[in-house]
Amino acid sequence: MFEHALFPLNFNETTSRIEEMLAYLSLFGTRKITFLHVVEFGVAAAGRAEKRLWRVSDRAAARGFESRVLVRNGSAANEIVRVSEEEAADFIVFSWKRKTWIQRSILGSTTRDVIRLADLPVFVHKHNRPAPGEEGMTVLYATAFKATDADVAPYLCSPGLSGHRLRLMHVGERAPDPAAERARLSEVESSLERLAGEFSDNFDETDETATVGNPRREIVREARRVGADVVIVGKSDAPAGLGAVLGSTAEELPHSARCSVLIIPRR
């Protein structure tokens, strides 16, 4: 499920960051990488970009990846999504570079736009620690149960995400009265235990937690507490209600989390 990655580059990435990303993609079982740079105009700029992409491609080839390079003109987010479809990529990967809130307000965020527009998983790599060792990753999956589990489950069961520990988390809203809250908590506990059983073969350890509060804030806090390497969250395209909350969390989480984030879209 992670065999072919589309890796857009804006050339702000350092050599060490690219090497870290390639190490993660090796863990995911990725075999092929398409490197892409989007330029707004200029034949000369496109030519220089292609030469720089080939240097990155050579590094990937040295690690055993099959790779190719593409240069496109136009809107970065739109071209990234278009190329991901044309190249039949399995997922899109970004090396994260933090922007201030002023930069995000004025310039926007290509990563956020791609998360919103793409029908493919988006992996945002954060430089928070070395790539996990042979024991595998610590993964935090923030579940909304029926809204996203069917979409995320195939990825959590794939060899590319096998790891040392899976932490299942649900952030909900408190029910209006004590009896309803007890019933809600019982259903949450039952659902978390069911998911733990589904994914137990892919991880050495599985455990669960449930809390009440703001999803983005609580997910970030839990990821930091358990030392997660990757946070996984499903993206809902529903226009209102819980779907709107999930969609907003998926778009904002890469800005807030200290670790890498994998966003899975609706199928």
CATH level-1 class of the largest domain: Alpha Beta
* Strand/helix succession: EHEHEHEHHEEHEHEHEHE
Individual helix count: 9
- Write the CATH architecture name of the largest domain: 3-Layer(aba) Sandwich
Tell me roughly what share of residues is in helical segments. 40-55%
Number of strands: 10
- The general outline is elongated
- Report how far apart the termini are: 13 Å
Give me the CATH fold name of the largest domain: Rossmann fold
Strand line-up in the sheet with most strands: 3-2-1-4-5-10-9-6-7-8
Sequence stretches where pLDDT stays below 50 over 5 or more residues: 101-107, 239-246
Beta-strand share of residues? 15-25%
Category by helix and strand content = alpha/beta
The number of domains is 2
Classified in CATH, the superfamily of the largest domain is: HUPs
**Main beta sheet:** 10 strands, mixed
Mean pLDDT: 85
Radius of gyration: 19 Å
In short:
This protein is of the alpha/beta class and 267 residues long.
Describe the structure in your own words:
The protein is of the alpha/beta class. It has 2 domains: 4-125, HUPs (Rossmann fold), CATH 3.40.50; 137-264, 3-Layer(aba) Sandwich (Rossmann fold). Helix content is 44%, strand content 25%. The chain has a 10-stranded mixed sheet, sandwiched between helices. The longest helix has 22 residues, at 178-199. Residues 101-107 and 239-246 have low confidence and may be disordered.
Features:
267 residues; alpha/beta; Rossmann fold; 2 domains; 10 strands; 44% helix; elongated
